[in-house]
Write a structure and sequence with these properties.
With about 240 residues, the protein is α/β, with parallel strands linked by helices. It has a domain at about 85-240: Vaccinia Virus protein VP39 (Rossmann fold). Helices cover about 40% and strands about 20% of the residues. It has 6 helices and 7 strands, in the order ααβαβαββαβαββ. The chain has helices at about 20-40, 45-80, 100-105, 130-140, 180-190, 205-215, and strands at about 90-95, 115-120, 145-150, 165-170, 195-205, 220, 235-240. The chain has a 7-stranded mixed beta sheet. α1 packs antiparallel against α2 and α2 (about 45-80) runs parallel beside α3. The chain is elongated and about 65 Å long. It starts with 20 loop residues before the first helix and ends with a strand.
């Protein structure tokens, strides 16, 4: 989990930014605008009430979204990785690692293993999304010795077959606009897994269901309100699969 307390060496703990910052900024701005319009409304009471309710709903969704992106997703991944039965010496790959929230949470559980992250570092997907930021977060968390990052497309991973014991991904694959390429990313994830390795993919519930259908195996479970991006219509599910 993110630790914002000052470390003994004077460096602050990791800061993971905000997912899709443009979207949540627009959501919050729309809510604030509706609330202001309601306060200034001079027409029928019904119109004022409608604007006030719309503003409250949008601001409420913004609050839920921010809780998820700043804390809820971290709590969920803590639970999922604790339940993965890791020995601590695994080689783990995180697809679309961003600023390292999942990557570093995993690395803390791999004292003799290694956590590798790949990303294309797109700023619209996460604020301040740069490899240097991810490595700085790893240093702040005390796991820099077991973390590496690469610039790579998850539909064409630059790793040999059966390279990793665990592959993780959080809210990444749905960003690929073409279904066939989303499925290729899944196939690549399975390709680099060793037999008996675990695949853990968190994504919006319709996407997660599609991934399970494509793979033809694995289990799905909801991650709860703490992983809602504004409401249950953008709830996240976890796909867990073990490679045969």
């Amino acid at each position: 989990m993110e630790n914002l307390a000052e470390r003994p060496n004077g460096q602050l703990g990791p800061k993971y930014g905000v997912d899709a910052p443009g979207f949540v900024a627009s959501l919050g701005a729309a809510g604030a605008a509706a609330a202001v319009a309601a306060a200034r409304w001079r027409g029928a009471r019904r119109g004022r009430t409608g604007l006030a309710l719309a503003g409250a709903a949008l601001l409420g969704q913004t609050g839920i979204y921010l809780h998820t992106t700043l804390r809820g997703k971290l709590n969920a991944w803590e639970r999922e990785l604790d339940g993965a039965g890791l020995r601590g010496d695994e080689q783990l790959l995180d697809l679309g690692c961003g600023r390292g929230a999942v990557l570093i949470t995993a690395a803390k559980r791999l004292p003799t293993g290694r956590a590798v992250g790949v990303d294309l570092w797109v700023g619209k997907d996460q604020s301040g999304n740069r490899p240097g930021t991810t490595l700085a977060n790893a240093r702040a968390a005390g796991v820099a010795d077991r973390v590496a990052v690469h610039t790579a497309d998850i539909t064409e991973l630059p790793f040999p077959d059966a390279s990793f014991d665990v592959v993780t991904s959080a809210l990444v694959i749905h960003n690929i606009p073409v279904p066939a390429l989303r499925h290729r990313a899944l196939d690549e994830a399975v390709r680099v897994l060793r037999p008996g390795g675990q695949l853990l993919i968190a994504d919006f519930w319709p996407m997660a269901a599609d991934y399970a259908r494509h793979l033809g195996r694995g289990t799905l479970h909801p991650l709860g309100p703490g992983y809602w991006y504004g409401g249950p219509w953008l709830a996240v599910r976890m796909l867990r699969m073990v490679k045969k």
